[in-house]
Amino acid sequence: MQVRSLLLLLALILVAAAAEAGKNKKEKTKKDGSKCEDWHWGPCVPNSKDCGLGYREGTCKDESRKLKCKIPCNWKKKFGADCKYKFESWGGCSAQTGLKTRSGILKKALYNAQCEETVFVTKPCSSKIKSKSKAKKGKGKD
């Protein structure tokens, strides 16, 4: 009986210590945080070339900060990495230009980015003719 009481007391002490440690972590993050709520963020600037890891700078009144960010290497430079669009399916191929076109509607603007509501993208038409049915190989015996 005394062993059970001792184990229960030990468990309660451990739970209380863990709760206190969690409380201290929350207080530390509050001290590091800013009271400013009107942050203005610049674009993500890659560390080298035009994509990959980088940083963005933000300002709020007299404060400034830098956040790590990443620009995917397949992003559309025309739109910026902070503008997210929902795109339609590709349209038909234009015989005059040899290009396909599709439009995208703004889904989300990250970090107060200035984004166009609707964008249009083009790509060259495929020179290959895709067939939907595949030839059967080796199915029948001669």
Automatic annotation (TrEMBL):
Annotated Gene Ontology cellular component terms: extracellular region
PROSITE patterns: PTN_MK_2
Keyword terms of this UniProt record: Developmental protein, Disulfide bond, Growth factor, Heparin-binding, Mitogen, Secreted, Signal
GO biological process entries: positive regulation of cell division
Main localization, broad class: secreted
An MF annotation (GO) of this entry: heparin binding
Pleiotrophin/Midkine C-terminal domain residues: 80-141
Entry-linked InterPro entries: Midkine_heparin-bd_GF (IPR000762), PTN/MK_C_dom (IPR020090), PTN/MK_C_dom_sf (IPR038130), PTN/MK_diS_sf (IPR020091), PTN/MK_N_dom (IPR020089), PTN/MK_N_dom_sf (IPR037122), PTN_MK_heparin-bd_GF_CS (IPR020092)
Segment forming the signal sequence: 1-21
Alphabetized Pfam families for the sequence: PTN_MK_C (PF01091), PTN_MK_N (PF05196)
Primary role: Secreted protein that functions as cytokine and growth factor and mediates its signal through cell-surface proteoglycan and non-proteoglycan receptors. Regulates many processes like inflammatory response, cell proliferation, cell adhesion, cell growth, cell survival, tissue regeneration, cell differentiation and cell migration.
Family the UniProt entry places it in: Belongs to the pleiotrophin family.
UniProt-recorded name of the protein: Midkine
Record organism: Sinosuthora webbiana
